[in-house]
Amino acid sequence: MVSRMFRMETGVDKERLGLLRSRLRETNDAASPVLRALRGTPDDQEEPLALWALDEAGGVAAGLAAHTWGRWLHVNHLWVAAPHRGAGLGSRLLDEAERVARQDRGCVSSRVETWDFQAPGFYRSHGYELVCVIPDYPEGVKEFTLTKKLG
Q: How many other CB atoms sit within 10 Å of the CB of residue 133?
């Protein structure tokens, strides 16, 4: 066996990061016919999706930030201002994001990560199923991953 020496470096290097992404993509495409078939199609383009609920003064009362990729909706952030919680704004935003993802972007599924003190019950009440729990992420907090088929 040949032993080689490697020098390790830290630091953000945009050119190397681009190379890393490109090489990983090539490796993934070689290993997965599903990913290979996805490349170059409209479903391979990550598209942002943002929805806002504005109060009477035009301020943000609630918002949802997501993206679609691979026929999936990925909910990144959903927030409702404290005075407006319980008024159904979160449900309306989530329902509309799912509708846009399904009808306008051809998505078949949705996913979200949420912490134990945030909204796992909210997502379950909207048909999401728990697929993963990561304890201590960060320490003392549980992260939940939930998914839903967009019928």
A: 12
